[in-house]
Amino acid sequence: MIVFKFGGASVKDGPSVQNVANIIKQSPATRLVIVLSAMDKMTNAFEALAMHHFKGNVEKSRRQFELIRNFHLDLMHPLFPNPSHEAYAAVDRLLNEVTTILAKPALSDFDQFYDQLIPYGELLSTQIVSQYLYKENINHRLIDARTIVATDDKWREARVDWDATQKNTNHHILPALTSGQRPIVLTQGFIGADAHGNSTTLGREGSDYTAAVLAYCLNAEKVVIWKDVPGLLNADPKMMANTVKINEISYGEAMELAYYGATIIHPKTIKPLENKKIPLLIKPFSDPAEAGSVISSNETKAQAVACYIYKFDQTLLSITPRDFSFINTENLSDIFLIFKKHNIKINMMQNSAISFSVCFDGNQDEFSGLLNSLQNNFRVLYNHHLQLITIRNHQQSDIEKVLGGRKILLEQRSRSTLQMLVSGQE
Ligand code: ASP
Ligand code: MG
Predict the structure, then answer these.
(1) Is the CB–ligand 1 distance for residue 211 below 6 Å?
(2) What distance in Å separates the CA atoms of residue 171 and residue 167, rounded to the nearest whole number?
């Protein structure tokens, strides 16, 4: 049994949906679970809709809904030329549910409201693809991920309840995979439900994680994530010419890359797969015969390729105790508590005798709150719009290449990792 995951880029228009159907048709897998994301940038579009409605901006909300509706209908027209095809009624039912949510004022907790509305990106996507697969005589069962992926109610970042999810998988997915000629289950990535049946989401780009969760519960043979790139590259091709594809990499190294901000796979994806030694393949949907990249427990074949990870729009804070004390565990623990309270994740940190420097993602709503809390006991200096460059397996010659003459504001080095915080402009 194999788990396939298709992201938004793989279902961005009619021809892409046809391509997905071909990949499924031609796969040699005898039992298949398919995890699907919202189409193209529809999650962003739903986020904007949620925001407009939450702020009570009726006109903007109406226009945003129209945009979402038209996107899906335009995508469907070439797939279902018959205007009375059942697919249109199915999509209408989902859009009506969205309208019903929008007819009421938003819940007072934005994050909870978000989790009510945002799943419709995935629900629409799976409904359209399911209808198309039936049209192509690809037999399958569409199963609502909210009946499978059980979570807590930490809105927008729900944590999986593994025991409940395992039970749901055994009761609903396994039986669907044992009957019929070549059983296929189609479900949504990114979404789940709490114990009361409220929809939840697993964090942006969370569909990869769903694929890993299901693969774990089903003891799948492997997971294939279909992407718009040839595999795992050693840098973002938008940032660097001459990128190299990494053919094989260990779970540990993949986790490190994801941790430092490589965006190719959701960071939580690897661990469940590693625990059951389920290999993860990253393959190009434009060329399914290509080998892609393999992430597995095989350490020996792994190449030590230099990998470059860029994080943009970073803020650097330097924190100095007002009472002229040295940086010690006591004031550090105060500082960490303040960061935790404002929910700001630290990307890099370093201390000297009298100052503690912290780098984190800029442009966060909580920034001014953080600053206020710190300023009671500390003098704080800060710089915005910096770049954090991480190089794994670095060579000395790589450094000048990425710096381009820029000054390093903060640097950290271990045998395998070099991190440099530099000014934004080259
Ligand atoms: N549709 C969700 C997002 O765009 C989940 C995913 O694509 O993995 O974040
Ligand atoms: Mg995506």
Answers:
(1) no
(2) 6
